[in-house]
Amino acid sequence: MSDTLNAPGRMTIGSGPDSLTLLINQDAYLGNAQYVVRVDGVQIDQVLTASALRSSGEVDVVTVRGDWKGGSHTVAVEFLNDAWDGSPETDRNLFLVGASHGGRDVDGATASLMRPEAATFSFADPLRILPLGDSNTHGWDNSKDEATWEGYRKPLWDTAASQGLSIDFVGPRSNGSASLPDHDHFGVSGITATEVAGLAHDLAQQTQPDVVLLMLGSNDALREGDAAQTVPGELLSIMRSIVSVTPHAEILFASLPAVNAELLPFRADANEIREAINAQLPGVAAQARAEGIDARFVPVGYGLDDLTDGAHLTEAAHARLAQAWFDNLIVG
């Protein structure tokens, strides 16, 4: 069979926002090699046929697409139609030349398949985390330049890195110090649960999160007398919108920090409203799970001594929140 008939090819299999690239070639004796690709045990599309000849030094480029949650994933490339156990000139063989993910080569993704068998390797997909909330997610700190605000995101990143968990913060906003490698988030100072409920669908489409860290309702409590009646339903609405776009997303939502109404030009009963919202959050989690949403309430105890002013967390309180997030990430 001539090199003209066996020109190297490019193909895309599967669908989804994530991708893995395989480099494949063959010894084509009495026909081309055929194979299948599986990710985490699931076959991606149909039986594939190699084109590129090893003898020519060319490769087929196969882009495998999917929607893989962050973590480790196993890939199998299974050769199907060996001719017989002969030499390269008198046999049909398949070669996995390499693989890449996220622009980086994958270790261990090479194999010579001389008989019907599978080559396997693993790759790690960073956990895409959307920090979603108000000024405490933003990292409000009047002692620092706003460009360096990071709140719980810095200690969460450090804890994940120390435990070997690869994460990728996502979101259209960016703040953080030089020591925080990833500044992405959607923490907006002053934003309410009511406002985010109207943004959640588009935000999920834009960010495609594996995990959402949700802490919202403080600004509602500060401004709205009926927030204890509206915020729980709005949080549930936010969750529904997110999973309508990313059904696999895990949503962790934390209790609201204390507020010191004496130091703020808002409602005098804001802390009581905040407490009434918090009391309903376990029920919100139960309702979400009943609807098939992977949701978990993360209770974090706060007092007035956890605040730098009337509403914003100290570094120590941010570190405690980060640990609570991480503990629930690894359980999930």
From TrEMBL:
Lineage, top-rank taxon, reads Bacteria
Q: Where is the Carbohydrate binding module xylan-binding domain?
A: 27-96
Question: What molecular functions are annotated in GO for this chain?
Answer: phosphatidylcholine lysophospholipase activity
Q: Name one Pfam family in it.
A: CBM60
Q: Which residues form the SGNH hydrolase-type esterase domain?
A: 132-320
Which InterPro entries does this entry report, sorted A to Z?
CBM60_xylan-bd, Ester_Hydrolysis_Enzymes, SGNH_hydro, SGNH_hydro_sf
What's the name of the protein? Answer: SGNH hydrolase-type esterase domain-containing protein
